[in-house]
Amino acid sequence: MYDTINTSDKSSAPSLNPSRTICHVCQKQFSQYTCPRCNSRYCSLHCYKSHSLRCTESFMRENVVGELQQMQPDEQTKHKMLDILKRFHSEEEMDSINDDEDYSTLSEGIVQKFLSGQEISFDDLSVEEKKRFQRAIASGELSKMIKPWEPWWSKLSARKIRLSKEGTQLVQPLAEEEMEDDTEDHDSSKIPLGPETPLPPVSRLSSKEPSPILTVHLVDILYSYCFTLRLYNGDWRTDPLGSVLVIFSVSSVLGQGGQPETVLEALSHCLQQTCSPAFRHMGGLQFGFGVIDDAIRLLELGSSALICALCDMHRLVQEAGKVAKSEKPRKSRTDEIRSTIRHAERKIYFIMCWVHEQPQEAWSSLASIVRTEKASVVESESRGKTQRLNNKAETKGKCLIEEIQ
Questions:
Q1: Residues of CATH 3.30.60.220 domain(s) within the chain?
Q2: Of the candidate ranges 46-55, 198-207, 333-342, the one whose mean pLDDT is the lowest
Q3: Which of the listed CATH numbers 3.40.50.2000, 1.10.3720.10, 3.30.450.20, 3.30.60.220 matches domain 7-59?
Q4: Alpha-carbon distance 278 to 281, whole Å?
Q5: What span, in angstroms and rounded, lies between the C-alpha atoms of 24 and 335?
Q6: Please, are residues 42 and 35 in contact by the beta-carbon 8 Å criterion?
Q7: Is pTM, for the whole model, over 0.70?
Q8: What CA–CA distance (Å, rounded) separates 127 from 254?
Q9: Among 105-119, 162-176, 237-251, 259-273, where is mean pLDDT lowest?
Q10: Using CA atoms, how far apart are residues 34 and 74, in angstroms rounded to an integer?
């Protein structure tokens, strides 16, 4: 297959003896792993999930507050933020009237300061306003105020992606570039560029024959890519390290060194992570089904679109690696996350070279398999809901009979 390095082995061998460190969550078992976000020690998947919500909220809050403190907005950014603040303020006022609560998101002084054109920093907010703002970030409430991002793979121009025989980016005709400049709202909606250098044959990267389950791993990787871009509204460049941590949380292949053997197994893991407390605010299972549709769309577009997506993901991981290396000591992640980034970079590049060698018809077949497995999950979920409703009604009926007797 490709050179796979077991990152779990390295994560269980830090400078301190893990057998002598108690799990920070359950306080019962010896820990074997370290959270890449907060460096907490944990012993099992259950304990990791138990701590992941507050860890994610803290991580997201730190990143957003840091970005706010460093931002030097231009006039266009100010106008966009003003629109968001106006909508958010008016909606909260309406909610407070409907709920008969004395609740206001922003003080009148802050709103007037912004309306007068003065700059507002996070420090200008009161303690209560800061708490409300942080809660809005953690719950995903602010994301509802932002114009939804249109994925590049859903655009008509995505059907016309062409790469050279070596897999490199072709020079785009000037007429098409000018047309795209007129229709695209921002850079994150544009189709990512393909590789700048020719892709080497897989045989040069590994002496082993590629494994047949690489198709399954591709589905896992595509899902995590689409999920992350949806989460960051198409612009991973605002936070490369945060983006790659999301990828590692969702992808079994890249994040946990997993080896799913079926498409259903890969999708099940991705959907489970999507419905976890850390990402539940995105929309749960229904949002996950939409991300599967994104992956299907990429597969249907064929090799060129897949290579562009993987190349974009490869750049994301590379940028995250640079950020991880340059971070100050107080913010630095452990060697574990840096090692995982290096291994993910190699895996994505290998998959990209492997995709380049596959026939076009392979992707339409894989897209059909993914669509079929998605349908089976949807049907299973529907049956499960019906069964739960029936059980609830049956239980309620039994209780009623007992009360009558």
A1: 7-59
A2: 46-55
A3: 3.30.60.220
A4: 8
A5: 19
A6: yes
A7: no
A8: 39
A9: 105-119
A10: 40
